[in-house]
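The material for today's practical consists of a large collection of protein records. Backbone structure tokens are a discrete shorthand for how the chain folds in space. An example says more than a description, so a record of this kind follows:
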Amino acid sequence: MSWNFVRSPTRFLQETFRDFALRAQLEEYERWWEERGKAISSFIDRLGTPWLRMFDRFGNRVDEIQYPPEYWEMLQTGYKAGAVWRVFEERTLLPFYLFGYVTSFYDPGVYCPYTVTLSTGVPLWKYGSEAVKTKYLPPLLRRDGNAWQGATWMTEVKGGSDLGASVETVARPQGDYWLLRGEKYFASNVGADVAVVAARPEGAPPGVRGLALFLLPRRLEDGRLNYFIRRLKDKIGTRSVPTGEVELLDSVAYLLGKPEWGIYLILEVLNISRVANSIGSVALAQRAIQEALAFSEGRVAFGKRILDHPLLHQQFEERVRTLQLAFALAWEAVQLLDEVWLETPRYSGRYHLFRLVAHLAKYWTAEVAVQTAKWTMEVHGGAGVLAEYSVERLLREAMILPIWEGTPHRQILDGLEVMERREAHHQLFLHLAPYADREALQEMDERVRSHLALPPEEKEAQAEGLFGALAEFTAACALRRLYTRS
């Protein structure tokens, strides 16, 4: 069996779609990564946590992140190619996720800045006032290598999942803007030119219903910093995106949308990122398989290539099949989001169908990435754990993917919630019916119904088995649907 299509992200996309939008542009983007980007990415990873220069020599606060010049070249290459601006020009999210797939094959950390920049631009475009939009959106969409970057800062020191209890940042109105005071503990793409920030307006009720979403610029009109970076985080992976702690000291910000819509806008932001996480997970899994394939073709043991040993050959078949299933599930989430991303509260039933699929995809694909990276280390044997080769990095990067944008537990619980409150599983089964075995569909429907009827504590405690099975079932149907359309 030929697995040549796993050697390249664009070849994999071609195998999946036969033809796809932006093919020539993506192939050119892939060539840049092969010729230059891979070396830069490896260099940045080996450097570890960048240095934060907090003051200039005159004692002025500057908070500059000291990456080498090659880093900024790598980062701006994707912005110039259209990872973000094409979404607004073409009114579709598909280019973002296609560019994200190629990016994440080489460096999932780099895909994070593109993701949070888009997740800043979309709510700004949908919910910002005309004056704020006119001022802050065009710099995010520049194509000249000087695009502004966005960020999405929700998490505080008490955690990220229970936003209603953990967000303590307070917003005070000041005419046509607000002043934010608080801290963000895990701020990815720290140093961004603008960020969307969760905060609680003074006098707002407790819990998630009292949160609002604000646009926060890095600098004030006079050039002074509007937020401060306390320190950078020393992470095991994704070193190509800086993560730090942010202090907001009466920082100027602009309300997005209605105050009472805050939690819905926050979840819209997370939806874009969760689907991006799924795409990035699959791309990393493909890269891991590609590395394993290259090694097993060259490594000889007991008189033949290790690829030709029946056990490993069978494992390759299973991994490639899982890769195709994972991509189909992630792409199902992409397509559904592309249908509903322009909706505003109150949302349609189709939007809640998307939510369920997004939770399934985020949960399942991240685990596929981890297990595939681990298996690739095993294929390499001792070479797999050495820092001088690329394989151990894949596992470090993969371990972050289940945690980004909500842990597996969060995906399961949110998935249960959308099934219980919105009956999204009914819509899911109707959506999948043309591509599902009738008997298997009925069995899965009955299994979900029976589970939702359990007492609350038992329902939660036993949820992971159901969620995993539902994810695999959805992935299988999505794969049939994908190849039927292709």
Summary: The CA atoms of residues 179 and 205 lie 18 Å apart.
